[in-house]
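$ run holo --ligand "magnesium ion" --emit tokens
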Amino acid sequence: MIEFTQVSKYYQGRAAVNALTLNCPEGAFTVLAGTSGSGKSTTLKMINRLVEHDAGQIRFAGRDIRDTDVQTLRRRIGYAIQSVGLFPHWTVAQNIAAVPQLLRWPKRKINDRTDELLGLLGLEPAQFRSRYPHQLSGGQQQRVGVARALAADPDVLLMDEPFGALDPVTRAALQREIRRIHRLMGRTIVLVTHDVDEALYLADRVVLMDAGEVVQQGAPYALLRQPASPFVREFFASSEPGVRLLSLETVAQRMRAQERFNGAAVPYNMTLREALSRFVELGVVRLGVTDAAGQPCGVLHFNDLAGAEPSV
Ligand SMILES: Nc1ncnc2c1ncn2[C@@H]1O[C@H](COP(=O)(O)OP(=O)(O)OP(=O)(O)O)[C@@H](O)[C@H]1O
Ligand SMILES: [Mg+2]
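-- output --
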């Protein structure tokens, strides 16, 4: 969907991004990770031409982005950023409706979509619709930013540390929400983060950057198990590599589906990392597993957490 070929961007003669070649496949969740100043935000902004690249080629849906009208391009791309973004003199509803307005959606459709998104992101529509950005907490502003990026149902969603200012609980809830939205709508998402756990939890594909260059890109599992350099190993495995691996799999992948157990249960879609902490918390070696309808669908054994590698 988005392909960079030997793309460079220079500021005052210094490369912020250097000969970058990367690929964000259609429908995939790509996470750009890396140290501060490694060029992640610059890379993201080149996709919707908020920053123009100096060398190389960027293709969007097969076409050179320089051959596409900027406005047309941006309408197909939702963009959410951590810091700025909301129009201060517009209400929450007006902010979310910015792109649908441009696209001249009927009023009714815009209102419905706005309320739907507010609900999706945990903001009670009646309470938040008419507020102004300065009447929101930082985390609420971020959520409105994400809602605005999603509003017109864009082909591609770009997010630059969208959950940066959130407490761990809200952050985890929004990560689950965005993952659910991704699975549901099959949209192509490119998200920037320097949070290792967030990268591993969300990504189909991780692109790890350092000093304006890609150090390694691939499935999270591959980066954890076959780091291409000491930098990659250090970035991901500075602590608890084994536990991190568990966050890549769900209970459903390791449970014994034919067994039943009447004690404490966990949902089938919980990560094994969360399940591990449940085992320790409860001091048990077996947990029942429930399906989406809350019905028993298997048993997870503590010993199976250390089982064979999944296929990737
Ligand atoms: N407008 C600009 N003018 C000059 N230099 C810039 C500009 N924007 C970015 N840079 C430089 O380019 C490099 C990459 O910046 P970028 O914002 O892409 O990094 P980042 O990976 O997003 O970092 P962070 O994690 O801190 O947000 C940095 O060295 C930065 O100082
Ligand atoms: Mg940045």
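-- notes --
The chain has a mean pLDDT of 89.
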